[in-house]
């Protein structure tokens, strides 16, 4: 990937500001990384000093931002084509592709080294693997080669709670992988709903999203199947060490709503108006954001209650 790969129309019109470089880090995605990593850190049975905990979350956030910058560097050509992404710093010409690459590589190295020093080598290694997975496995390979891109690639966004847990304990266990699985299974229906009402973007960019390769009807069926599997996993997690009555209450309500939304999408008539379909699909997408936040929020509440001997089933 080089600057020459970007159309001449993206030549920088003005000097980039702090906001443009910050946008390279995909702050909205970073906020999800920070939150799920924080839950993983605080749900761990072994507490950490607040200063160490702050440092761990900070460097995990920087690592997530570095991944975003590297993704924008490599995807500048397709970002320029898609309406949803053409205003990003690189395709809009506000930041040069080489600058995004340098920033991404620099922050990647900084975040991995500092997380390892602040917590433990295992956490630093997991962060390094997560950055590699997102940039190389997902961005450079899966995204442009298979409709399973978001299914397999979703693992990259599911690693933060595992990193947070390892930062606190230095060890692996079942619980962080339940949080990983929750995010991993949530990712496909979340992004496929986005692809349904933004399908023309992926068509124009030549990205083999499921909506492009298999059509809208198949995508809707996939959303329903994955949502059903996600519901089983999410409710089952309530009976693990990170679950409890609070989490179970949230999981039952949210998964009933999510299943209902997926069912409505699966029953959409292709002959229905585009506006009606857009409303249903966009509504499900927005619900998916609340879904993950509330599940991890409930895990966090259970962790806090356990400190006072109130959480869990004991």
Automatic annotation (TrEMBL):
It comes from the Bacteria. The chain crosses the membrane at residues 29-45, 51-74, 95-115, 121-142, 149-171, 177-197, 223-240, 246-263, 284-305. It is a multi-pass membrane protein. GO terms for molecular function: protoheme IX farnesyltransferase activity. Its EC number is 2.5.1.141. Coiled coil: none annotated. It catalyses: heme b + (2E,6E)-farnesyl diphosphate + H2O = Fe(II)-heme o + diphosphate. CDD domains: PT_UbiA_Cox10. Pfam families: UbiA. It is found in: Cell membrane. Keywords: Cell membrane, Heme biosynthesis, Membrane, Transferase, Transmembrane, Transmembrane helix. Gene3D superfamilies: UbiA prenyltransferase. Belongs to the UbiA prenyltransferase family. Protoheme IX farnesyltransferase subfamily. Converts heme B (protoheme IX) to heme O by substitution of the vinyl group on carbon 2 of heme B porphyrin ring with a hydroxyethyl farnesyl side group. Carbon 2 of the heme B porphyrin ring is defined according to the Fischer nomenclature. This is Protoheme IX farnesyltransferase. It comes from Lutimaribacter marinistellae. The lineage of its organism: Bacteria, Pseudomonadati, Pseudomonadota, Alphaproteobacteria, Rhodobacterales.
